[in-house]
Amino acid sequence: MAETRPEAGPPRPPEGTGAGTRGPSPWDRPEPEEIATARMVLEPLTPGHAGPMLPVLGDPALYAFTGGEPPTPDGLRRRYTLQSAGSPDRDRSWFNWILYVRGEGLPAGFVQATVDHGPAGPVADLAWVVGVPHQGRGLATEAALGMRDWLAAHGVRAFRASIHPLHDASAGVARRLGLTPAPGVDEDGEVRWASAG
């Protein structure tokens, strides 16, 4: 299982950012695109993904580290509609992709990023979830690397993630992304991982 709160919206934004409090964004936000990896296709999220994703998010075991519970069909459609519409904050962008393993037909999970594009440059908070039947195959790492590389190609240079301190699988993904953990835990009981620089 990968680290995020699958029952919630996009990853939590960094502290201290407020809607509409800055001048024009210095980052030229790209439109989400399909991302191809060695074994997967990452499709930009649409409300139509809600139905196929219900079984992925329906296993209570998926919430062992994040808390929460499986979404309802209506709740997931509303969430995906909101996420697909994009962030209302002009200094923040939401990116969400659904993971499809080639030849398997049904989705295996999702990756997402909240990009804060303030004066210091774009910083991405990353999250990933792989459904229980698909775990242990390296899909979270492959998808997260694909997402990171796509964001980096569009000017993002700093990356972060929040991970439960006992979630070894997600810590492994973060290490593969080049992130290192900060000491201690934050107010949510999670370890903040960040790229160097």
From TrEMBL:
SUPFAM superfamilies (UniProt xref): Acyl-CoA N-acyltransferases (Nat) (SSF55729)
Domain N-acetyltransferase: 39-180
InterPro entries named in the record: Acyl_CoA_acyltransferase (IPR016181), GNAT_dom (IPR000182), Ribosomal_N-acetyltransferase (IPR051908)
Spans annotated as Disordered: 1-33
Protein origin, superkingdom: Bacteria
Protein's recorded name: GNAT family N-acetyltransferase
